[in-house]
Write a structure and sequence with these properties.
Elements: E1 3-9, E2 16-21, H1 24-28, E3 39-45, H2 49-56, E4 64-70, H3 79-91, E5 99-104, H4 106-118, E6 124-129, H5 132-138, E7 143-148, E8 151-158, E9 164-167, H6 176-193, H7 195-209, H8 213-233, H9 248-258, H10 265-280, H11 284-296, H12 308-316, E10 328-333, E11 336-340, H13 345-352
Parallel strand pairs: 2-9, 3-4, 3-5, 5-6
Antiparallel strand pairs: 1-2, 7-8, 10-11
């Protein structure tokens, strides 16, 4: 079947396409040009592999292909899990021309990408995301890594993929809760840099929840276009790319304090975006629109009860902290985000009880 869109992530000699369409796993897109050696390791998990591994394998015909299925869940996004990938690469005698292919959601992509970044100081890597959250966010931009007991994604590396292959048919089997969690990241793009897209989401949220193919394709394409533009401008998050973390300082703290997996990443980010909007002090109707849109997606808009000291400790490990100073992605208005350490201390105290 023809692809619906190809979006280029422009990074000089590290540029790569994001290919979005239906039926891509079954040969609708040829992966061979992006695999430069004869060996491939497909990293998936125990949930996704039974659904999609056999559909991907014909696209790798002529290669020496092995696979490794990880346990499923954010709680397994650890150095120990990544070690199992490195062990497989070593035991199979993988060379520097090996390609690691991540088939799964954000956890699989992050762990497999980090292993690819580390093995022999970097081997080729392909993203085949199968969840909405991974398709619109984590598979694009080259961030890879694992969690540490002290914080989210504290151990990792930038390692760009060769290609991101998004087969939207994989969303047919995505559980409703996972779909809703992915929509949080879609809403984020409208909130930080595209007010017209935000309005479109307000009008089309019912269609997205119904998995309308045309609506999902548009939401995925626009999200990837926006992220690709930001990443091309600031690959290693030295400046503007940090706006993609809107809601994440609070969201990551929620995930850490509750225990990874209790709230899905998108659920925590949804509540975090409302907290960030309230910290921003933007007009009340803008915050209300954001809250209503997230609520219409079935996402939480208030954080769980967390002790103020735990809020403070968790946010203190946020990667945007500089010189022990908390920095937040805030909104000037819907569609206009910025990152700053100049925020209202009283509002932060009211939101979390935590101070600087």
């Amino acid at each position: 079947m023809p692809t619906s869109a190809t979006i280029e992530v422009s990074l000089g000699d590290r540029s790569y396409p994001i290919v979005i369409g239906q039926g891509l796993l079954d040969g609708g897109f040829e992966l061979s040009p992006f695999i430069h050696g004869g060996d491939c390791l497909v990293v998936s998990n125990e949930t996704v592999a039974p659904l999609y591994l056999d559909r991907l394998l014909p696209n790798l015909a002529g290669r020496d292909v092995s696979s490794l299925n990880l346990p499923d869940g954010e709680s397994f996004k650890t150095v120990a899990t990544m070690q199992t990938i490195l062990d497989r690469l070593v035991s199979s005698g993988a060379n520097r021309d090996t390609t690691v292919i991540a088939l799964g959601g954000g956890v699989v992509g992050d762990i497999a990408g980090f292993a690819a970044a580390c093995y022999m100081r970097g081997v080729a890597f392909i993203q085949v995301p199968t969840t909405l959250l991974a398709q619109v966010d984590s598979s694009v931009g080259g961030k890879t890594g694992v969690n540490h007991e002290m914080g989210k994604n504290l151990v990792g590396a930038f390692h760009q993929p060769q290609v991101v292959l998004i087969d939207t048919n994989t969303l047919d089997t995505l559980p409703e809760r996972e779909l809703r969690a992915g929509l949080a990241e879609v809403v984020k793009y409208g909130a930080i840099c595209d007010p017209a897209f935000f309005e479109w989401l307000e009008e089309n949220m019912p269609a997205l929840l119904d998995k309308d193919a045309q609506a999902l394709a548009h939401a995925i394409q626009r999200s990837c276009e926006l992220k690709a533009a930001v990443v091309a401008d600031d690959e290693r998050e030295a400046g503007r790319r940090a706006i993609l973390n809107f809601g994440h300082t609070f969201g990551h703290a929620i995930e850490h304090c509750l225990g990874y997996g209790e709230w899905l990443h998108g659920e925590a980010v949804a509540a975090g975006m409302i907290m960030a909007a309230e910290l921003s002090g933007i007009e009340a109707d803008a915050t209300t629109r954001l809250r209503n849109l997230l609520a219409s997606a079935g996402l939480p808009t208030t954080p769980p009860a967390i002790d103020s000291e735990r809020w403070h400790d968790a946010m203190g490990m946020d990667k945007k902290v500089q010189q022990k100073q908390l920095r937040f992605v805030l909104l000037r208005t819907l569609g206009d985000a910025w990152i700053t350490s100049d925020y209202d201390e009283g509002r932060l105290q009211a939101l979390t009880g935590a101070g600087r």
